[in-house]
Structure formats: C-alpha cells, structure tokens
Amino acid sequence: MTDRKTSWIESANDGQTDFPLQNLPYGIFSANGKTPRVGVAIGDMVLDLAVLDEAGLLPAAAKGAFDGDSLNRFIALGKPVWSETRQRLTALLSGDDKALEGNPALRAAALAPASWVTLHLPVQIPGYTDFYSSKEHATNVGRMFRDPENALLPNWLEIPIGYNGRASSVVVSGTELHRPNGQIKLPNEARPLFGPCRKLDFELEMGFIVGKDSALGAPVSTAAAPEHMFGMVLLNDWSARDIQQWEYVPLGPFNSKTFGTSISPWVVTMEALEPFRRDNPAQSPEPLSYLRQQARNAYDIDLEVLLRADGAEDAATISRTNFKAMYWTMAQQLAHHTVSGCNVRVGDLMGSGTISGTTPDSYGSLLELTRNGAEPVTLPGGAKRGFLEDGDEVVMRGWCQGDGYRIGFGEVRGRILPAIAA
Amino acid sequence: MTDRKTSWIESANDGQTDFPLQNLPYGIFSANGKTPRVGVAIGDMVLDLAVLDEAGLLPAAAKGAFDGDSLNRFIALGKPVWSETRQRLTALLSGDDKALEGNPALRAAALAPASWVTLHLPVQIPGYTDFYSSKEHATNVGRMFRDPENALLPNWLEIPIGYNGRASSVVVSGTELHRPNGQIKLPNEARPLFGPCRKLDFELEMGFIVGKDSALGAPVSTAAAPEHMFGMVLLNDWSARDIQQWEYVPLGPFNSKTFGTSISPWVVTMEALEPFRRDNPAQSPEPLSYLRQQARNAYDIDLEVLLRADGAEDAATISRTNFKAMYWTMAQQLAHHTVSGCNVRVGDLMGSGTISGTTPDSYGSLLELTRNGAEPVTLPGGAKRGFLEDGDEVVMRGWCQGDGYRIGFGEVRGRILPAIAA
C-alpha cells in the first residue's frame, strides 16, 4: 500500500495501467470527426486538452497551445509551462480541483475512451538523429561484421557515435511499412542485385524529444542538457541488414534505414520519469571534458520486444532488457551533438541506438538475437524467424516500475507489408 | 547579336549579369523594415512578388503564395503554377505586358535595388541529404584516406552514395560560422584531444530543391524525377577533416559537417536551366534497372571557388570546374533516395557532393587541392593555405554560359570566425 495520489478515473489506479496519474503523457489524437489535438492519456481514457483550454482550466501561459496537430507549440513554451500544466492536470484528475470531475457536461466533452480515438505522430520532427550508445550492441555488431577480436571500434569509447537520420519517414505506431527494395550484394556475385530486402530487422530503441531550441554556434553542456529535453518515446529503427551492409561504407546507413522509423504515440515527460533516474554507468576511460556529467542521467526503464509471426494468434516476447545499461547518456548525446556548434530545435528526435543487454535474451535486434540469421528464434507454434517475414508484426513496450504503479510508454507497433513490385 | 528577349530593366541586358530576363530566380528578401517575402532577381534589382500579387498581376493560382518567409508555399503549388508564374514575370519584365513598366508607383513599390535588401534562407528545409556523386572526388578522397590502389570503393559505381545531412544548420550565404570544436585523434597519441578543428575545409557543391512531395512507400523513377525538382542552388558543405577522420566509421560524418552548410540565396529554376541540359556522362557498368535514365540529366554549369585570406584585399580563384562531369545525375540521386520507399518533401535539399574535375586546378576542396594540407595553395600576396584559417572567406560562384547572356547562381559566401572557447 502506497500513499500515492489517485485519480477519480478508476482505470488509472489499478497498478497495471501504463497511464496512472503520475504519468500524464502527451500525444496527438482525433476522434468524433474533430481535428487532431493534444491529449493526455489517463488510465483507459484520453483527455482532450483543447477542450480543457477552451474551458479555461489550463494555465494562461499555455492558452491556444493544444488545438494543433503536433505538440510543438506546447513544447516551445518551455519547462516552467510544462510543469505548471502538469500541476493543473494533476489537480484536475486527482479531484483536488473539482472543475472537471464535478462537471458532467465537460467530462463528456473532454474525456474519450482510448479505444475510440486515433493516435497521430505526436511531434512535427524538424530533425532526427540516431545514436549508437549501447556498448553491448556495438560490440555484437562489430563482432559479426568487422573484427571479432577488436569488435569495438577505437572511437566508440570516446564518442557518443551518432548520425543524421531521415525525419520524413518517422511514423506513428501502427503504421504498416512495405519491405524495402534495394541493392543487395551477395558474396559470390560480382555485382549487386536489386530486389526486396532479405534481412529485414527491427532495432529496439528509445528516443528523446528536444524541448528547447539551441542557437547555431552555442553548444549545450551536459549540465544544461536536461533543460533541453521534453520527454521520451519508444522507437523502432527498422533496418534492412543486407542493404545496409553494402551501402554503409563510407558515409553510413541510408536506404537501409530511411524507409521508415516508428515511434510510440505518447510522449512521457522527463518530469514523470524523474523518480526513475539512476546512477550513470561506469565509463572507462573517463570521457573528454565536454562529456563529463555530474547529474544522474541514466533511467530505469524496462523494455520488451514481442514478435507476432504472420498468421499467428499471439505475439511472443523475444527480448527483455532495460534502458539504464546504456553506456552514453542522453545528456552526453546532446552535448556531443551540439559541441561542434550544431543547433537543435524543438521537436527534434534523438534515438538512443539499439538497446541490448548483456545476455542473449536481452538483445535489441534480430541480427543479434539470431546471430545474423544463423540461429533463428523459435516462436510458440513452431514458426522460426532469422529475420522478419511479410505480415510479421513487431511490438515494443516500455515502463518504469514504481511501488504499486508504473509509468508506461504504451507501445510502438508495426507490421511489414510485402515489397512493392519494382 | 542574338534575338533573345530583353528587359526594360537595363541592368538585366548587359550580358554579364547573373540575372537576365531568362533567369528569374526566386529568393526571400526583406527591405525597408517589411517582413521577408518572395522576390525575383532581375539585373541589379529585386522584384517584390508579394506586391505584384497584391496588385493582381500574378496568376490567380498563386494568390497569397508570396508573402511568407520561405518559398515552400509557392513551390508546393506545383510545376504548372511555376511555369505560369514564369510566363507572367517574363511578360511583365520584358514589357510585353505594360502593367508594371507603365505604372511608376507600382514600379517604385515593387522594385528594390539588390544592394539595399537583405537576403534570407530561401527555403524552409524539412530534410537535407548530401550525395557523393563526383567520381574524381571519391577517387581523390579514397586515395588519401583509404587504399591508393583501390581508391574507389566497390559500391561507388553501383550506388549514388548519399547520407542524411543536418537541416537545422543550413544557412544562407553571408552567415559567418565559428570554427567547430571537436574530437581530434593525432596519430601518435593514445587518446583524442578536444579542441578547435585544425583542418577546416570547404566543399564545392550544388543542391537541388525538391518541388513535390512523394508518399512513403512510393518510389520516384528517374523518368518522374524532373517533376519533383524545383530548382538549384550553390552549396558549401563546410567540413572539419580531422574531426571527420576520427568520427566517420561506421555511421558516417556527423559533427564534422553539422556545424554549418551554406547555400546561395537565389534558387535558379529547372525551367531556366533547361537550355543547358547535356548528355549524361558515360556510366560503366550500366547501372541497375532503377537507375537507368532516358532523359539528358546533366547540366552545363561553370563553377569557381574563390578564397580571400584573412586580411587580404582580394579573393583569389583557387578552383574552376563544371557540374556536367558529375557521374551520378540528380534524377538518379532522387530515384535512389526513394527506391527504399523513403518519402521526400517540398523544400528538401539534395546536395550533389563535392564537384571535382579531372585536373588539379579543378578540385572542389582544399583537401584535394592541397593533398591534405601537404602542398598548400599560394595566394596572391604570398599567403599560403593548407586549410582554412580564422577570418578566411570562401566564395563560390556558378553560371550557365549562353550565347551573349548567362544564367547565374550569384554566389555562396562564408567567413570563418574563431572557435568558441570550450
């Protein structure tokens, strides 16, 4: 029994929901033929902030920030407004303030059952950067594709390696993606062939959403980095391994990644995640000056990947891991991103890189789980998968486990459609 | 003597200007304290399209597309509207239609001397991709950094290699940039140091601006590609060679490029460039099916790079080359970019990659011109440069030489400020 605050929306209090009163993640939803607007998930309901704003129940500083089709306008208002809005929502949904609970007409207008609404991409994303911050993942990949004896490249322990991703093809959970066509170089052929990817994979990642612009030429320090973070999402960095292997030298992955990246629809705020900050992982050698950090920048977030084979009833859990083991923290990623003078903008998405644990059942990609397809995973019912087949669906879930409650991210889900005839 | 049409704006007719009646490039300008809006360069004047639109002199289909701070709204209207607008402007500026020429009050309101206006970034850029399409450049770089005997990587002749760039730091000509700080690994040191770049370079490129959205999962063929191109700009892909060399394996260049990319303020339309289409360069081996092209997709554009050393009076021309020698065409770049299903959007910027010719005086970077700094260029007055020093200014110019006129791109100019104290 804890004394944490509960909501008059009962489904928020069962200890199992991803969306208790302590979470209050933001997203964009539409329902009832109304235009997309900002909502907050609470239990099995979605709260319409445009309606609450209209009713004058949200902070004056946020007036008019909730009726658009992205969170960007709200995010751009800055951290004090995020906090004030969170406090208001907590008061309204706990019943400390009766303005919503005690007004049946307003409740009917502002609360929609989550199963009735359509969720959209929460953020208009001006830039998407993907990092590579799990030491286990980088080691596993290096072992398979480069030198098993020197799996980790020399720069990896110095640089939070990252690269620019493609923002246009970031899609919301539930969006189906076609298997990409591309160039594939088979070992015994002189030239590549052109055709559908044969090694289609997922990558379990998380991403943070930038909450504050930085100026060109003005680096963000690790100490200032948390000021620039609004919240986090689950992220599936779909990857075409065969296309990637042929294309990635010398300028990095391109078509093997740009065909689609899926994120979860609810953005969990850094404020909601605050109780789940943990000590930073040990780093050796000690990072260069601009990467050193004082604050605890790791987060304890349980993660799992489920795979539903085409035609199967149920999805099987094929990986379980935790975000806290990432070698480079988000604060270090942002400090590195901006240390050259590069600016970031409200809504930018920063992917963590594949999150792999130390044991074979905690790897964040099929590449690692199946050793590049050589040791397929067996699913309940007997289906085997080295890589993804058409019709397969991947579901990623994440949550912070509190005492009697959890701060959940919901899920990011995606199904693979056959390749388009080329 | 040619019979080409001339303008009643005399400065457009001297055969030397970049901006004759045949050009009509679009940009964003502000003057007189008015908000930024769309302008067209004509001789030494800038024509205010928001004023012309207000006066009812532009196509009805383009109504309201010219008073914003980017070209995106106009571009999104599509090719027929671009053509109709060009025809209207040609009629108004040639005097075939007297509505502007014969109206002194309107002329005064709509025409500003170019030297009086401020030019802004012409396009709001949702995505920036940079290719690597000069065979000479790829060979020169491979020779220096990889294997002199096998300078061209095996995938280069098959793939129009490209990577995602950073859109947030694309700036308009004239923007000064700080020398980036970053990680530099010296050969005899065990660990990298952190400090200002010591090998700061430019890259002479051009870029095209995407004129039409494509849908996720819907590749754009080489045949359809020209429909998706609005126009072209000059592009300087500033590069920190020492940072690049340490960071780029395995995910490509990041901080070495993201600190800034400069483009010219005037977007020269594909329609204006039409007379300068040329036969495609020979490609061997014949590209895979999706990269084959029927149309003439090469363009004859003369290019030069000037360097003004810090404190020097004059800039010296250090490179002269031509865009037509690029191995992969823009149509092939776009077909490759989208073949995986990746979508493109109006305003996307697609860089060509460094444009290097076959002779040492036609290379598009100091890296190549000076053999990685080993053979500095000597400038008039005696200054030597292996790489850029603080206060140095780089100017790139481009033009298509017609019979008695030229279609010019103006210039992209940028000066290097000292590194910010880290």
Automatic annotation (TrEMBL), chains A, B:
Keyword terms of this UniProt record: Calcium, Hydrolase, Magnesium, Metal-binding, Phenylalanine catabolism, Tyrosine catabolism
Biological or metabolic pathway of the protein: Amino-acid degradation; L-phenylalanine degradation; acetoacetate and fumarate from L-phenylalanine: step 6/6
Keyword hit for Magnesium: yes
Catalytic class of the enzyme: hydrolase
EC number: 3.7.1.2
Domain called Fumarylacetoacetase-like C-terminal: residue spans: 128-416
Superkingdom of origin organism: Bacteria
Residue ranges of domain Fumarylacetoacetase N-terminal in the record: 22-122
Pfam families cross-referenced by the UniProt entry: FAA_hydrolase, FAA_hydrolase_N
Record-given protein name: fumarylacetoacetase
Source species: Cupriavidus malaysiensis
